[in-house]
Specification:
The chain is mainly alpha-helical. The chain has a single domain (5-298), classed as Up-down Bundle (Na+/H+ antiporter like fold). The protein starts with a helix and ends in a 9-residue tail after the last helix. α3 runs parallel beside α6 (109-135), α9 (208-230) crosses α12 (263-293) and α11 runs antiparallel to α12 (263-293). 73% of the residues lie in helices and 0% in strands. The longest helix has 31 residues, at 263-293.
Length: 318
């Protein structure tokens, strides 16, 4: 029952959001919840650990190529709306909540944070040229808006965390005690996202077939991302690589889709929220069950074990 708690909370958040579309009024809180979660993560991270490896560049390249591939495939099929939904789903970078999930799974948080920074900055820069290619819309205002949002979401919590660590080094010791608090913030984000999607579906006249097609495309992209990501790294970081490519910062591209392609395209990233979090729920269940069966094995990740022993990492950063 304990192992079923986390995945059960994920399903409950989606169900509650669907039946309470009125909560969509509070979706503006999502970015602030993300900033709090990132702040808590940065409190524990060593600056020297945030160095891109070869795998991070492979993840970024795969991220962009998948976005272009699914867009071109859907575009050639003759549906512009499906092409927009596929593009904004496939091009989505690593989620800011991915390091939180990897911490719950006992993996390497520094690897995930580096993936988040690398893909979000890299994809944002690429979108300045890709959005005109896909939609024909490009303004200087968009570029400045992306730059500001990245600084607001990443720069502020990072700077605040490093400043507090400089003033009070023991602040990092408080973070493990707030693990449940971080998890509930994440659940609140899922609830608000589901509520926003429910409100749009109820108010629009979208045909059920279009919804099913977008949901199917989104699910296919999700499966490809987690599978391909697993094989982009060697054994020691396969789970982190899979999570980096699979768990997406959907709120980022959802807002871009709404701005440049319309609400129908935004349903692609919205459905992706459901698919990647269902997989997250399965992973959390398996991890919790394994930990309950073997309580002494809190962090099975080899990289964590080597760091505790003081051994150098097997793969040198670039």
């Amino acid at each position: 029952m304990k192992a079923l708690f986390r995945p059960g909370m994920i399903l409950l958040a989606f169900a509650a959001g669907y039946f309470l579309p009125q909560a969509a009024l509070y979706t503006f809180l999502i970015r602030y919840f993300l900033m709090i979660m990132l702040f808590l993560i940065f409190l524990q991270v060593k600056v020297q650990g945030l160095r891109p490896r070869k795998t991070h560049w492979l993840i970024l390249a795969a991220n962009i190529l998948i976005g272009l591939s699914v867009w071109l495939t859907a575009f050639l099929s003759g549906s512009r709306d499906l092409a927009y939904a596929a593009f904004f789903t496939g091009i989505t970078p690593t989620a800011s909540a991915a390091p939180v999930i990897m911490r719950f799974l006992g993996g390497n948080v520094e690897f995930m944070l580096t993936s988040f920074l690398t893909t979000n900055i890299g994809v944002s820069l690429s979108l300045t040229g890709l959005i005109p290619l896909v939609t024909g819309n490009f303004t200087l205002k968009f570029l400045l808006n992306v730059a500001w949002n990245l600084f607001f979401l990443i720069g502020i919590p990072m700077s605040a965390a490093f400043l507090i660590r400089k003033i009070y080094p023991k602040a990092k010791d408080v973070v493990p005690k707030l693990a449940n608090f971080s998890y509930m913030l994440w659940i609140c984000m899922l609830f608000l996202t589901a509520s926003s999607a429910s409100e749009y579906i109820r108010k629009s006249s979208v045909s059920p077939m279009i919804l099913l097609e977008i949901a199917g495309i989104s699910a296919g992209i999700c499966a490809v991302n987690f599978t391909l990501g697993y094989f982009l790294d060697r054994k020691e970081f396969r789970r982190e690589s899979s999570q980096s490519l699979g768990q997406k910062n959907t709120m980022f591209t959802l807002s871009l889709a709404m701005t440049f392609a319309g609400p129908l395209a935004a349903l692609g990233p919205t459905f992706y929220v459901l698919w990647h979090n269902l997989w997250n729920g399965i992973q959390l269940y398996l991890h919790d069950r394994r930990k309950n069966e073997n309580p002494t094995c809190e962090n099975p990740n080899p990289d964590y074990i080597e760091e505790k022993k003081g051994k150098p990492e097997k793969e040198k950063p670039l």
